[in-house]
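Backbone Fold Data
Goal — fold tokens
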Amino acid sequence: MKNKRLGVSLLAALTLLTVSACSGEPETESAPASSTTSSAPDQNLVRTRLDRAVDKTAKKYHAQVGVAISAGDDTIAAGDKGEGPVWSTIKVPIAIAALKDGADKSLVDLAIKESDNDAAYSLWSQVQWHEGSAEEAVGDLLDDYGSHADIHDTAFGYSTWPLKDQAVFGAQLPCIEEADYVHNVLKDIVSWQKVGLSKEKQTRAKSGWGLDEEEDEYTYRQFGVHEVAGKRVGIALSVVTDGENYAEAEPAVDYLAHQLVDIVEAGVDEGNIEPAAQCEDR
């Protein structure tokens, strides 16, 4: 083909070969390799996007950052694992366990909507009184839904509950019968706590925050459930910043949460995230 002087004779020869090759059944052009797998979920793409969101947030706010999502049988995490204190996010399973034991819903309102520590302690005490061990009862509740935590028996805010496990439990929230009330009030968080995930439409989340005085680090945690077209994806995040000011962590949480929700919605739309549509026992 490089010698144009071959001209018509070469073209004629190629034409004869083509006709001869096509004299039987027509051949189907092979699809590009990428298109043959386009219908299969691409978790690597989701993970790459999560990694990018973590890196961008960490660099922009000089923070230690982690995220996790849980959809169906799959859980994907990036960045920090969130193995430090869980702070007030643990109030969600405490409230659910207490409601199983007949807790007053007004205490749940205070503990979840306002993150009131006294109300949460009252719920914890009720579980302790009914079950003999609040630590075991809350731990068993999480285990029942495939989530695992190390519950602190005297100061439950210091419990450890990794982001992946929080995301798993978040995905199950609408499926836990006793969690109906908690699931509902998570959408009614007081205005000054509507940060990050709690700002996002179709997202129900609980925040927790606290200061590590020894390390002079401020941790902001969130977990909950994002609902897309009637389907659910559990989500969790953690941002650790230097210093002891709540206000310094808040913009980083907003920035990360918005990216996380966008990644989830894009992943669902593309078929790379397969959220659960129904609860197994409902």
Remarks:
- Residues 246-270 form the longest helix (25 residues).
